[in-house]
User: Fold this.
Amino acid sequence: MFSGIIGFRGTVVANEERHGGRHLVISAPHAIADGIEPKDSIAINGVCLTATSVGKERIAFDVVPETVGRTTLSALHEGDKVNVELSLKMGDRLGGHFVYGHVDATAQILERRPEGEGERIVIATPPSLARYIIEKGYVAIDGVSLTIAAVDQNRFEIALIPETAARTTLGDRPAGKLVNIEVDPIARYALGEAPMPTLTA
Assistant:
């Protein structure tokens, strides 16, 4: 479980094809210093992955074909920057919204335009997710928890503040780029498509 509040940025060191999947290596020394071990769940651009090995500066992941097919991870190249979020611990402050790291779809950035001190970003709405994209609701874009500012028939908009632009990769994503989309799980529960999770002792 994640919050969509990005704590770190990493750099792609390698992204190699392996048996239909990928072997992804990220340089993220500051995240590692915060405490990462093999088998930990880590969100890379909003995709929940399991660390297979952890060094002083690098984390390696094996990405299965199912994940490759549903996300933008296969398009990453050496030197690309990525959002890195460590999984929540009991007692952590939830500053964003609940994010599972299970990407629902990819979508294209259609437009970016200045708005005040920040920007307005327009993203195409994947048809399968249209019912969950609600004005003032939440969405995770490349793992970043954001509030939906406006919704049109086939697109939605977010208002990106300078702090988020500076701390995440969203400040560098140009129009035409694909991003990972995960809808707010509470929207799914509210629409009755999945039972609310329960905590047991």
Observations:
- Residues 8-86 form a domain with the Elongation Factor Tu (Ef-tu); domain 3 fold (CATH 2.40.30.20).
- DSSP finds four helices and twelve strands in the chain.
- The longest helix spans residues 65-70.
